[in-house]
# Entry
Amino acid sequence: MEKEKIRLRALTKEDAKTSWKWRNNDDVKYFYSGHPFPVNVEKEEAWLSKLIDSDIPLASFGIVEIETDKFIGMSFLKNINLIHRNAEIAIFIGDQNATGKGFAKEATLKTIDFAFNELNLNRIYLVVQDDNFNAIKLYEKCNFVKEAVLREANFKKGKYVDVIMMSILRSEYT
# Structure
């Protein structure tokens, strides 16, 4: 078994001092951020406060590199539906020095594990832009299956881009 490189923890208001910078990064805004507007630290603090005060239908986690104890990203289970036993997953590594080291895969698997084993969900789904090749490769390595293409669903940098919907079922997670 591989040595754990990251841990998931609760987000804190203090995290806004780091995460607001990530959300102003052009790559993060293009691939992940829901809106194209600049984010100031006050807006980030307000957003994080809402997340911190919420549980169901949202579970949010800070991703921390164990070796350095550094906050490097976030993962979320959104739209948790306890009747139909499903939720949407979203994840990003905001610290550019922490990309390409396997942290995103481990964080994805830990978030999925939480969903299946702590919340007793049956299906986790996600949406990803079809030009986010690294994320698609990651999700496929984590056994997500492509379900649909949402044609021209996002408007980014002056053009429409397709979005892929993917999912994993409890029975596919080992």
